[in-house]
């Protein structure tokens, strides 16, 4: 019979695996429960360059460098009229190797992360379901789990870290989940073989963001190894799934491709190699990051939006920041909410900076226009795009961005007024 762990981590995704690895590196007894058997499918394939420092700390860099994952040097935007921006090359900000990152196949990447956690001493238990989390008031005190053979057992750690993804076991139990009313989006995606890639090595692994006609939505276009490209559309929930209208995912995807010639050209002649997938209303956060004896990390805390590929970056950062707070608390005998959630304010500042950038995109923000008008802030924009969002100097960019946004709104209003004036008037 193994000793009770000091910390139990629920979920073996990037957030849970990161938190577990750091705690094990710090000498704590950590057990991780994962309900599935890895490798398993998951969407969300693009890393931000700032994840380099996380991967370095976790001892993952050599594994990534020797992997088949496609190298990513930039992100590029395509307008609804088909105009392509210059690529935002991350190395222009910093010529260090940290400015190159990867497009990952999540089944392979998450498996590497879980194996890495085990190699650092984490007691990883796959195909093990958490049936219940026990509370004494607001304090989490233990768990009931079901083992792969169907037997159950109870475990009583000092701290429980919930990295259960959108299942959000503790957040749902305590009713902490808060949807983002401004980001009621949906997505439909699939994977294609032999789709077009950019011709040179710097751009062939670039993430492309391509707007649909009328800026009603956008496509991600993420090259992967084995000649596969992940292609997905994101739009308002009501736009993709109107009430009272029944369409297959294939029909929805085809209609959106027709609204985006830049994507249609790229996938013409390719072969779809998976089913279509969908997810809806995925933007939310919990009202707390922690409580006495428990912490939320990754998607168990919240998810922003796929537009800038920030999901893995925020998962990693929450996992590391939470692990540091938990480790300090265990060493000091303090597992209070104040201690376990001490990382929350800094994390939320970074998340909110990304959220402002997301809101701006959906309000029509144009990177090219902004950089031409305020070239001195290109570095700040690039910092946001690489995920280096946990520094106050970035806040200098918001006032100039608002100036550009106001000009865009004024231009759109003028065009709308001109269009209204040109409408023929019915004569009575």
Automatic annotation (TrEMBL):
This is FAD-binding domain-containing protein. Signal peptide: none annotated. GO terms for molecular function: FAD binding. InterPro entries: FAD-bd, FAD/NAD-bd_sf, Flavin-dep_Halogenase_NPB. The lineage of its organism: Bacteria, Pseudomonadati, Planctomycetota, Planctomycetia, Gemmatales. It comes from Tuwongella immobilis. Residues 6-318 form the FAD-binding domain. PANTHER family: FAD-BINDING PROTEIN, SLR1998 PROTEIN.
């Amino acid at each position: 019979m193994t000793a009770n762990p000091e910390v139990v981590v629920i979920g073996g995704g990037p957030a849970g695996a990161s938190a577990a690895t750091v705690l094990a590196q710090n000498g704590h007894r950590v057990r991780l429960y994962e309900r599935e058997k890895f490798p398993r499918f998951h969407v969300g394939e693009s890393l931000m360059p700032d994840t380099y420092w996380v991967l370095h700390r976790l001892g993952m860099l050599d594994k990534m460098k020797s992997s088949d994952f496609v190298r990513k040097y930039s992100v590029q935007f395509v307008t609804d009229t088909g105009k392509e921006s210059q690529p935002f090359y991350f190395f222009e900000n910093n010529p260090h190797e940290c400015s190159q990152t990867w497009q990952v196949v999540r089944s392979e990447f998450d498996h590497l992360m879980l194996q890495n956690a085990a190699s650092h001493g984490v007691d990883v238990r796959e195909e093990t379901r958490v049936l219940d989390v026990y509370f004494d008031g607001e304090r989490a005190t233990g768990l009931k789990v079901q083992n792969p053979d169907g037997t159950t057992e109870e475990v009583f750690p000092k701290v429980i870290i919930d990295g259960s993804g959108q299942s959000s076991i503790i957040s749902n139990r305590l009713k902490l989940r808060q949807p983002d009313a401004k980001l009621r989006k949906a997505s439909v995606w699939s994977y294609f073989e032999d789709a077009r890639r950019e011709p040179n090595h710097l751009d062939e692994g670039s993430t492309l963001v391509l707007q649909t006609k009328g800026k009603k939505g956008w496509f991600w276009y993420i090259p992967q190894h084995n000649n596969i490209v992940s292609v997905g559309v994101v739009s308002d929930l009501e736009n993709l799934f109107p009430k009272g209208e029944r369409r297959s995912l294939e029909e929805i995807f085809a209609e959106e491709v027709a609204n985006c010639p830049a994507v249609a050209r790229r996938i013409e002649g390719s072969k779809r190699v998976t089913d279509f997938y969908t997810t809806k209303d995925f933007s939310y956060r919990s009202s707390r990051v922690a409580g006495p004896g428990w912490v939320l990390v990754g998607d168990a805390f919240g998810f922003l939006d796929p537009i800038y590929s920030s999901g893995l970056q925020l998962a990693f950062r929450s996992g590391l920041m939470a692990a540091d707070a938990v480790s300090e608390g265990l060493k000091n005998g303090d597992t209070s909410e104040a201690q376990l959630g001490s990382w929350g304010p800094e994390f939320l500042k970074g998340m909110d900076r990304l959220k402002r950038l997301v809101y701006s995109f959906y309000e029509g923000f144009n990177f090219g226009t902004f950089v031409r008008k305020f070239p001195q802030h290109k570095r700040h924009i690039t910092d946001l795009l690489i995920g280096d969002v946990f520094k106050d100097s970035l806040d200098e960019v918001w006032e100039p961005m608002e100036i550009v946004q106001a000009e865009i709104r004024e231009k759109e209003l003028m065009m709308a007024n001109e269009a209204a004036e040109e409408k023929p008037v019915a004569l009575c």
